[in-house]
Amino acid sequence: MAQPALLPAYLAFGADEVKREAARDRLVKRLEASGMADFNLDVRDMTHDQDVDALISSLNTFPMGADFRLVILEGCDRLTEPVRSALVAYLANPAPTTVVLLAATSLAKSTKLYKAVANLGAKAIIDCSAKKRRDLPVLVQGMARRHGRDITLDAAEELISRAGEGTRMLDNELKKLASMVSAPTISKADVERHVVRTAEVKPWDLLNAVSARDLPRALELLRLQPARSEVRIYALLLTRVRELMCAKALDARGRGRELAAHLGMQQWQVRNHLTWARRFTADELEEALRRAVDVEQALKGSRDSMNALTVWIAQIAGGSRDIRSR
Q1: How far, in Å, CA of 30 to CA of 67, rounded?
Q2: Taking the CB of residue 324, how many other CB atoms lie within 10 A of it?
């Protein structure tokens, strides 16, 4: 099957370093198929001073033994005015046998350079914007497949929690996991065993562990929270308890689908709330709310504030005998 024709220029821009690199790799591999990549590939770091004449000369050089010449310009975020103007002028009439890839972390759509690339075709702009947190687990699953492994969704979530949201770090950890895990699918246990936590723990991970009634994980994540964050955690968890009470009530009336509207939240923000709410009785959630009063008092200047918060979290996530015996 014939490969699609290449455009004279592409702009890969956005904070997702792995996606930018993937765009670069696709072009390089296509050039390598000619067997003449060494003679037709020019990679330049545009964060360093550039000789404008030498740059334009490279762009206009004919390929040797290949269908096209590839020029990769890394770090095009803050080009000098002479370089930027020269590139805009070149892109108005680009060489037909050269493909230039401009890579940048950010580049405003209002700039002449962005518009000059966009004018070459709809596929000339490669959006490498960072994924939203909620979309990262599925992205991680796709990244794992590039390393010859599958990864479960809960393992992907755990990896993000431990390594952070940067795609470069996530890809590095996936590469390491692929070399250490012989099974075709990477599990959450594999991540916990081989990936050292380097990212700051988000309070949402703690809230989710409490909501899922995973007491060991909840206590682990509580220990990893920043110092003097008890008041914030208390406020967030109190809100979560109320959300679960609302979810429980709506679910009992067969109106669980209305939860997001009732809470004034997006659907993705409450995608697990009904599942979590079903792990509690109504009495347990009401008791958690009543005990919050004592926790709030302990948080007001008491030396036992962390102890009070820890006990409250343990009661919610693990349950208590007096509630369970009802």
Answers
A1: 10
A2: 11
CB 144 within 8 Å of CB 186: yes
Whole-number pLDDT of residue 302:
62
Res 303: pLDDT: 66
Residue 42: name the closest of 68, 7, 76 by CA.
68
Q: Reduce the DSSP state of residue 202 to 3 states and report it.
A: coil
Phi, psi of 99 (to 5 degrees): -115, 125
Whether residue 90 contacts residue 55, with contact meaning beta carbons closer than 8 Å, is answered with no
Containing structural domain, residue 317:
203-324
Contact 157, 191 (CB under 8 A): no
**Residue 2: inside a domain, yes or no?**
no
Q: Which of 26, 21, 18, 20 is nearest to 170 (CA)?
A: 18
* 167: amino acid identity, one letter: T
- For 231, residues 6+ apart whose C-beta sits below 8 A from its C-beta are 299
CATH number for the domain spanning 15: value is: 3.40.50.300
The Cα–Cα gap between 63 and 311 comes to 70
pLDDT in tens, 195-204: 998 888 889 9
Q: Are residues 156 and 217 in the same domain?
A: no
Local confidence band at 1 (pLDDT 50, 70, 90 cut-offs): low
Task: Taking residues 226-241, report their average pLDDT.
Answer: 92
**Domain total of the chain:** 3
3-state secondary structure of 148: coil
Q: Mark out the alpha helices in 74-127 (DSSP H runs).
A: 81-92, 112-118
Residues 224 and 316 placed together within one structural domain of the fold: yes
**Model pTM score:** 0.61
Q: What is the DSSP letter of 1?
A: -
Please determine, for residue 138, whether its predicted confidence score (pLDDT) is greater than 60.
Answer: yes
